[in-house]
Amino acid sequence: MTALTTEAAPADLGMKLMMTRLRLVLTLFLAVLAVPVAAQQGGPFAPRMIVNDKAITNYELTQRLRLVRVLGQPGNAEEIALDGLIDDRLRVAEATRLGVLPEDEAILAGMEEFAARANLTAEEFTALLTARGVARETFRDFVAAGIAWREVVRARYAPRVTISEAEIDRALALSSRKGGARVLMSELILPADTPERQASSQALADRLSRTISTTGGFASAARQYSVSSSRGRGGRIDWIPLANLPPQMAAMILTLAPGEVSEPIPLGQAIALFQLRAIEETGTPAADAVSVEYARFRLPDPARAEQVGIRLDTCDDLYGAAKGLPEEMLTREVKPMADIPRDLGMELAKLDPGEMITRAWGGGAEIVMLCARTPQLEASPDRGEIRQRLLNQRLGSYADSYLAELRADAIIREP
């Protein structure tokens, strides 16, 4: 018995050693495999978001975020960067489907055109971006997506968009130096702050724009569906000078007769319908363009924003309210209305200098106050300039609605 035990011991020991080695090799093998997986999950080229079947990588998001900051786009930079990349994926995918992707020469020309807005050449602008950590390819892709989308919109809508002589006559009359115009409208604002809400709101807006045929019907729908503060009034808003509206909004209003309802219009994280109730000329000279000075004061606590707002009479009062807070919480800018995001522009159009609104911002709230509005009177344009302006504004409105539809139909998810 002792001999048998003595002979079996080395065999058992050898088996145990072999199993231990196998486990060690297997552990090391799995560890090696796990390295690239971890890198994919958290590395720069890991997917941050999936748009249909196309990935947006962490690297692309970081690059776009830097570009947004260099360009000084107002709002939450991270949200703007991610939303911009999502939209670009949809734009390029649609351009690919229609076969209208831009050639290299067109992209280079677009880069030169973009840089010229800062009085720089494309190479000078690229060097500036590179110094701030933005790769040349990031700038190129940004421009290429915009050109591709322009070609998509032209291919889809340009043959069908016509500007009538009556519309030109009306635009010339309303922009005459003899007097401006003001409009009386109602609004219906639907939420579009998530992909699910965007899809459902787009479908509802499409249905309502086709079925609402009376002022009473619009007011009833606004009370039922709108998330705007005007819902209790059936969506009714006060008279607004036509020149105070964002240019695309003004162009859209010019196409409506009293009682008619607009097509769905994207407004940031909302979708809007507008009904024209009345339009009249005023004795005030009309401005061809308007620049506005406005301030945005962001606070993480909505209750504090309400308390602060009670004590404000002018934009200068905001500096005292912001004392001790990070500088980025208070911004003050002067911009042409055409350069302001449409949702913010629509809110500013309703305000007089010194008036303000409080709206949601992240988990908190922001106070938006109009500091001043400056009309810019220019020489009266000729009929050709009016036609081109109305055409561009009409195409811009269609493009926004088209992109909203693509986004509503897309599958946008985190990996």
Main attributes of the structure:
18% strand; 415 residues; disordered N terminus; 4-stranded antiparallel beta sheet; 14 helices; alpha+beta
Task: Produce the secondary structure layout.
Elements: H1 2-42, E1 47-51, E2 54-57, H2 58-71, H3 77-98, H4 104-116, H5 122-131, H6 136-157, H7 165-174, E3 181-191, H8 195-211, H9 215-225, E4 240-241, H10 247-254, E5 265-266, E6 270-281, E7 289-299, H11 302-310, H12 317-321, E8 330-336, H13 342-349, E9 356-361, E10 364-376, H14 383-409, E11 412-413
Antiparallel strand pairs: 1-2, 1-11, 3-4, 3-6, 5-6, 7-8, 7-10, 9-10
Provide an overview of this structure.
This protein is an alpha+beta fold and 415 residues long. It is built from 14 helices and eleven strands. The chain has helices at 2-42, 58-71, 77-98, 104-116, 122-131, 136-157, 165-174, 195-211, 215-225, 247-254, 302-310, 317-321, 342-349, 383-409; strands at residues 47-51, 54-57, 181-191, 240-241, 265-266, 270-281, 289-299, 330-336, 356-361, 364-376, 412-413. The strands form three sheets. A four-stranded antiparallel sheet has the order 4-3-6-5. Strand 9 (356-361) and strand 10 form a beta hairpin. The longest helix is centred in the first third of the chain and has 41 residues, at 2-42.
